[in-house]
Specification:
Oligomer: single chain
Distance between the termini: 58 Å
Largest sheet: 5 strands, parallel
Mean pLDDT: 91
Number of strands: 16
Number of domains: 3
Shape: globular
Length: 508
């Protein structure tokens, strides 16, 4: 779908929303985006209902890759911002891995001072347009919102996205302040969320920052893993361009462990931050898994997202178009794969998950959108074999029904097989989305790096590795996790690297 069509949908949705009559005090309900003549009382704020996010209709969006959520109009954003109670002890901030001053930026939105809101937000968060779209706010900042004790919490994520998008459209009103050069050089391995966040923070300290990215485009999982309909590539590009404008240098097609080693970087940089993620896919280890038509979610989503296979033959990356697609897993990656397959023409796109809906680690919004789009769910089901024909093409998935037992290490009930419950799910394509682990490409060329039993880099409380001056964060130290947790590591690493360089300067 082209931008003209997407903008037409956006205009219609915004128009529809503008004609709704939300439950708000008269000072806000009348006259559009205006600041109330006097501050609202807590009682008045509690009467304002949470404002809905305009979105593409489900029957339309399953036929395109345009963004599902369309963003809050300014008037509605101001109404939502007025719901914030401006707590003195803001619990929401402690729930944010990058410690955004949430009440402050929201207060600026409520007052109509969007430039101040943007300055506040960008000071705390290097990638707000991204986190406003993909961060699991419902389990972090919003779950701690006092406003949510009676009703729904403030839509912090929606407001974060609104302010970030406004900031990009008004770059002249949000100029970056050039820092005093420190004379120190820092190398960052990986241009994903952890690496980009660290780069944005380090450049504020005046350091000379170079990011080395293995792929041909910066963004990491933001561009190869998360689909266009959830996080448009132009949003990632905008955030990357803002970092470049601030002075961050990014070199793509550089594989650390092949192009350069960590030891070679150490000879040219004062500190290093390793943030190369955990992109090695995990498989099910069941018979038939090597059949034709079985993809790891990493490969499938990389082909469609980063390499634009959905535009074939305009983009010459091929990918299978299954009619009946089974996706194994219950996280965000599984949702992304199933919803992508639907958009690629699958008549049936089926999530196969060994627990129940309530145990799914995927964001609630992503599960809701998947249900709206006709994604089918097989709960309490685990694959035991991939079926195939004489030419080794997938024909189905043999599964076993499960029941929930005692909690396992994750705290969720352990799925227990039910004897004699095997059945088959007919399908011609299987996508495995059961997790990832650390890729040894970098670590095997640096034997001095201490690793744990899973191949992840071991760090101390300062995120420093076993090699002085070499730090690490994100999925390479914690395993596959969320974008915002990786960003939290990036922000902390930047702080600790700056402290390390300051100490080094004193002792030099």
């Amino acid at each position: 779908m082209g931008w003209a069509v997407e903008n037409a949908i956006l205009n219609k949705m915004n128009s529809d929303t503008a004609h709704q009559t939300p439950a708000v005090p008269p000072a806000l309900a009348e006259g559009g985006a205006q600041v109330p003549s006097k501050p609202l009382t807590a009682r008045e704020r509690m009467k304002i209902q949470r404002q809905p996010m305009p979105e593409q209709p489900a029957e339309e969006r399953t036929r395109n890759f345009a963004e599902v959520n369309l963003g809050l109009p300014e008037r509605i954003a101001m109404v939502e911002a007025e719901r914030c109670l401006q707590c003195k002890d803001a619990k929401c901030v402690s729930g944010c891995p990058v410690q955004v001053d949430i009440p402050r930026f929201i207060q600026h939105v409520a007052q109509g001072n969007l430039a101040a809101a943007a300055e506040c937000l960008l000071n705390d968060n290097a990638l707000p347009a991204i986190t406003g779209r993909v961060c699991p706010q419902e389990t972090q900042c919003e779950v701690r919102c006092i406003r949510g004790a009676k009703g729904l919490p403030v839509a912090i994520g929606y407001l974060e996205r609104f302010v970030a998008d406004w900031a990009y459209r008004n770059l002249d009103l949000t100029p970056a302040k050039p820092p005093v050069p420190s004379g120190r050089k820092v190398a960052i391995v990986g241009a994903g969320p952890a690496g980009l966040t660290a780069a944005g923070e380090l450049i504020k300290h005046g350091h000379d920052v170079t990011v080395f990215e293995a792929l041909h485009r910066p963004g990491g999982v933001l561009v190869y893993g998360i689909p266009e309909f959830r996080l448009p590539k132009r949003i990632v590009d905008e955030e990357v361009n803002r970092l470049k404008a601030a002075g961050v240098k990014i070199e793509c097609n550089v594989v650390i462990g092949r192009t350069y080693t960590i030891d070679e970087l150490r000879r040219n940089f004062d500190a290093i931050f390793i943030a190369n993620g955990a992109g090695l896919p995990v498989f099910m280890n069941v018979p038939g898994e090597n059949a034709k038509g079985v993809y790891s979610a990493n490969e499938y989503l990389t082909r469609v997202n980063l390499m634009a296979a959905y535009k074939f033959p305009e983009a010459d990356t091929p990918v299978l178009h299954g009619r009946r697609v089974a996706v194994v897993g219950g996280g965000n990656v599984a949702m992304d794969a199933a919803r992508t397959a639907k958009r690629m023409g699958a008549e049936h796109s089926i999530i196969v998950y060994r627990r129940t809906r309530s145990e799914m680690p995927a964001r609630a919004e992503e599960v809701h959108h998947a249900e709206q789009e006709g994604i089918e769910f097989e709960f309490l089901v685990a694959p035991v074999e991939v079926l195939h024909d004489e030419k080794n093409w997938v024909t189905g998935l043999r599964c076993q029904r499960m029941k929930l037992g005692e909690p396992d290490a994750s705290g969720r009930p352990r799925p227990v097989p039910i004897p004699g419950s095997e059945f088959e799910i007919p399908c011609d394509m299987v996508i495995v989305a059961v997790g990832t682990r650390a890729n040894p490409l970098l670590t095997q060329t640096c034997p001095d790096l201490k690793l744990d039993k899973r191949g992840q880099i071991v760090v101390d409380e300062n995120l420093m590795t076993s090699i002085p001056g070499v730090f690490a964060g994100g999925d390479i130290i914690r395993g596959a996790a969320t974008v915002i947790l990786a960003m939290g590591d990036g922000k902390l690493a930047a702080q600790k690297i700056s402290e390390y360089l300051a100490r080094k300067a004193v002792t030099a």
